[in-house]
Amino acid sequence: MKNSKIVCFGGHGFLGSHLVPLLQREHDVFVPRSVDCDLREQAQVREFLLNTNPDVVLSLAALVGGIGFNQEHPAKLFYENALMGIMLMHEAYKAGVKKFVQLGTICAYPRDTSVPFKEEDLWNGYPDPSNAPYGLAKKMLLVQAQAYRKEYGFNVIYLLPVNLYGPGDNFNEDSSHVIPALIKKFVDAKKQNNSEVIIWGTGTPTREFLYVEDAARAIVLAMEKYNGADPVNLGSGNEISIKDLATLIGEEVGYSGSIVFDPSKPDGQPRRRLDVSKAKELFGFEAKTDFKEGLQKTIKWYNEGGE
């Protein structure tokens, strides 16, 4: 894999901004923007790949958001994620790309999956309705990956990361995930001297998080060492309740007011924690960043002007 020509779609995003520098240490990396190649336009995808002739394509580009964004835009999330992924994988195969790395999502797992989530559980039920259109669109790319491997011998690997967090995350209140959303809530409440912070849901669901630099390292390891058809989880193997997460972030921000949960808002999936043994076994990945340390780095980045 040394000195490969790599195209990283989504490389200017949150994860990509941490992944691309790692890749650039040993590879020639192209990082297109949507103005260079709109993944919703098949002709543009075909032309870009033929012109760049990459050895490896990394498919990170996605339309994503939190529960509120998923509830407001289910059709857009399904259509754009399915369209972008399907066309990119197809055109990469036709262009003779040697290896294709597709990122999936933990949202693809069935709502009532037994904890810890094992890769074999993916097809044991329907995803949580709060984000099913997004999760199913991404899961269809696993179907495509395995079908193209079987019929065409196309080397596609499929990785299933949990929710990521860290410096550079999306803090837009309309589309952010839970950690940046909570950090922004508590920082704003502290600045405005608000007496309480209101959090969606009951606070009882649990979530697992992976620090973005660990995720970037995992993708590089998988790209270099894994060539199998089976999906592989990427996570830390730890879970925390939303209530405990909110309390921890409030403490780290220095907020002294009350935390109030709004049970009229959706909780989403009851629990999320991955079985991460396959990633260790197949390509030697283990998360290294302590969760509290990762939160502190993220809060520091945001307080210093990150957006």
Write a structural description.
The chain has helices at about 15-25, 40-50, 65-70, 75-95, 130-150, 180-190, 210-225, 240-255, 275-285, 290-305; strands at about 5-10, 30, 55-60, 100-105, 155-160, 165, 195-200, 205, 210, 230-235, 240, 260. It is an alpha/beta fold. The protein has a domain at about 5-165 and about 205-240 and about 270-290: Rossmann fold (3-Layer(aba) Sandwich), CATH 3.40.50.720. The strands form four sheets. A six-stranded parallel beta sheet has the order 2-1-3-4-5-10, sandwiched between helices. A two-stranded parallel ribbon has the order 6-9. Strands 7-12 form a two-stranded parallel ribbon.
